[in-house]
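User: Sorry, folds how?
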Amino acid sequence: MKIAVVSHLVPPWPSGQAMMLHRLLRNLNPANYCLITSQDLSSIDNTSDSRRLPAEYFQLSSKFDGWEFRPLSWRDGINMTVDMISRARQIAGIVRRERCDAVLSCSSGNDLLDVPSGFLGSWLAGVPFHLYLFDTYAHMWTVPNTRWVGRLLEPFIVKRADSIIGTNEFVRDLLRKRYGVESRVIHNPCDLSAYENIPDPPEAGGSEIKIVYTGAIYDAHYEAFKNLFAAIGLLGRPELKVHLYTAVPISLLEEHDIRGPVVYHEHETAFAVPGIQRAADVLFLPFAFNTPYPELIKISSPSKIGEFLAARRPILVHAPPDSFLANYFREHECGLVVDENDPRALASGLERILSDQDLRQRLSRNAGERARVDFSVEAARSSFAELFGLDLET
C-alpha cells in the first residue's frame, strides 16, 4: 500500500499541521507514502519545527493567490477552478508514476484547493480518496462572502470519501449529524518522551509567577488575552507575569491591546518548547468568545493541547462553553475551565489555581494521564497505519 499525501503544509515547514504529519509519518516505511505540496520547501531550515521526511516530495505548479482571505470576484472563481483542475491533473500524474494506491488530502486553512484537487486527482487516477480534516473543510472558508464555496463542496466530497480522519470527537459528531458519515478520531499527536526527563519546577511563588503561552496569536485569541490581562489587574498581584513565546510581532499584539505584565519571547522551535512549558507555573490555553467564525472555534483542536497536557502543569482554559476545548478539559478535569467571557470569572479561576495546591496537583496528574491516553504519538501512528494497512518501521 502506498498513499499520496496532499497537504499545503508538510515537514519541514514550521507549522502545527506539518509537525503533526511529521509525527505520524516519521516511523512509517518511506516506500509506503509520498508527499505532494504546492509549497516551495527549498529555503526551509531542516532543523526548524519538524524534520524533512525520508519519502519522495513533489511540488505542484500552482497560481494559488490566497483565495480564502478575500471575497471572490467572478474572475477569481474562474481562475480558482482552472487552478484546481491543473493541480488535480498533476496529482493524478504523480499517483500513476509513483504507483500510489490512494490519495489522502489534508485540509488546511492556508490552502483551500488541496481537498478538491486531491479528490478530483484521485478520481482521474482511479484510486480511493481519503480525507484528513485538521479543520472541517467548510469552516476554513472564513470570509463570509466566500464561505458558500466550502459549504457547496464539502458535502459532495465528504460523502464520497473512502475514509475520513478528524482531530476530535466534536468533528466526528458533526460529520455524523450533518452528512451521516463515520470518521476516525486521531487526536493531534504529541511526543511524550520529550517531556519525560525534565524535572518539575519549584512550587509557584516568590518574585515571579509565570503564566506561559506558546504558539500563534491571532483573532481567535485576542479577546481571551485581553481578559487575561484584565484579570491580572483585578487580582493586583505584581508577581504575575505572562510569558508569550510567539512569532507574532509585538507591534501587532499591542495594536490589539495585548499589553500589561507581559514578557515577549521570540518563537522557539518544537525542540525547545517542552522545557519552556514544563517551567511554567500556569499554562494558558485560550479561544476568543466573539470571532467571525464561531463554528470553527467550536470544533477546533489546537496542536498544542497534547503538549500542554504532556507538560503536566496546571492549565487555565479560557474558551466558549460549547467548544471542544472547554468540554474536553471540563470532562476530564485536566485543566481549570473558565467559559465565561468575563475577566472577573477568569481572575477567580486563576486565583483558585494559585491558592489551591491540591487542585494544582490533581489537574497536573490528570493532564499527564490524558496525554498518555489520547495524545500519544505511538497510539496515533498505530491508528493511522492500521487504517491504511501500512507497516511501522522498528
Observations:
- The chain has two domains: 3-189+376-388, 194-374.
- The first strand starts at residue 3 and ends at 6.
- The chain has 15 helices and 13 strands.
